[in-house]
């Protein structure tokens, strides 16, 4: 499974972004899909994840501002980010959990700055 993330960038505080992450390959059945982030000098942390049934989980710091969704027909997971803050600046990476292992994609940089 290969994961390709896109949609990061530079945005002003209060702005929005909607990165996406598409999984490609064959013979896989993805269970959990999620987004993680790593800010400079910090450990990687969970941002949000979603089950095949649509159950979601969010970090407290993003609740009410971020929304995760998935399109299983496209093997794609999205992260709608609103009211972005400078502390959201980080490299955002997606992952996909299958019955065999967890796959990680290369990150996409999100910078929130005026």
**What pattern of helices and strands is seen along the backbone?**
EEEEEEEEEEE
Whole-number mean pLDDT: 94
Distance between the termini: 37 Å
Give the C-alpha Rg. 13 Å
Beta-strand residue fraction: over 45%
**Low confidence ranges:** none
Number of helices: 0
Characterize the main sheet: 7 strands, mixed
Protein structure class = mainly beta
* Helix-residue proportion: under 10%
* Total strand segments: 11
Give the overall shape, derived from the CA principal axes: globular
Explain what the structure shows.
The chain has 114 residues and is mainly beta. Helix content is 0%, strand content 49%.
Key words describing this protein structure:
single chain; mainly beta; 4-stranded antiparallel β-sheet
What's this entry about, in short?
The chain is 0% helix and 49% strand. It is mostly beta strands and 114 residues long.
Give the SSE map.
Elements: E1 2-6, E2 9-11, E3 20-24, E4 33-38, E5 45-50, E6 56-58, E7 66-71, E8 76-81, E9 90-97, E10 102-104, E11 108-112
Parallel strand pairs: 2-11
Antiparallel strand pairs: 1-3, 3-8, 4-5, 4-9, 5-6, 7-8, 9-10, 9-11
């Amino acid at each position: 499974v290969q994961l390709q993330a896109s949609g990061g960038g530079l945005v002003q505080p209060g702005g929005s972004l909607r990165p996406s992450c598409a999984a490609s390959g064959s013979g896989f059945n993805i269970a959990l899909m999620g987004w993680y982030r790593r800010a400079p000098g910090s450990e990687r942390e969970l941002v949000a994840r979603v089950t095949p049934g649509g159950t979601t989980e969010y970090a407290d710091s993003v609740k009410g501002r971020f929304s995760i969704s998935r399109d299983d027909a496209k093997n794609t997971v999205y992260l709608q980010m609103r009211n972005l803050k400078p502390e959201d600046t980080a490299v955002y990476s997606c992952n996909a959990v299958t019955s065999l292992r967890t796959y990680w994609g290369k990150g996409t940089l999100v910078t929130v700055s005026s």
